[in-house]
Amino acid sequence: MSLKELTKEAHTQAEKSGFVKILFSGEIDPKLYATFLKNLHPQYEILEVCAMARGVLTGFPDARRSPSINADFEELWNKETYGDPKILPVVKRYIDHIMSIMNDPNKLMAHVYVRHMGDLAGGQMIAKRVPGSGRMYQFSDPEGLKTAIRAKLTDDMADEAKICFQFARDLFDEMMTLVPNE
Description:
Elements: H1 3-6, H2 8-15, H3 18-25, H4 30-53, H5 66-76, H6 79-82, H7 89-100, H8 105-120, H9 122-127, H10 142-151, H11 158-176
């Protein structure tokens, strides 16, 4: 069984989130989307810094997403109008988790797989439906990056990939607490 098959249920559960439906709706409020980006940024940043330090991103064309996520946030956020964005509890939990696995390249790779392959796949559909430029979903060589990621995957990464999917679900659930009731 492939890593994709081994993590299919966890992936499907993440996709069923109410917040994912909002992302795909084409009607997400720019402030809410910017808050989402602000919460994604430190998660990608810690993952990418640790992955680079362990050589996990070596040979990955255009892999780093954190600078693009921050640029997308900056494009949408007006500090004078909105103040400071809310940072959700899942962000610290994710940072703590990545720090606990920072010396394990295979576990870091499992997170790169979940996050970056998601941006290369479903992220392409999301990019067409969210406000702003969607830089986080723009890759100079998407096929090259997919190939490079796939070359480093092993089935024994499934348990850690499922943990990453759970963190994604937690972020989506916590983002739903910021959605105004209508």
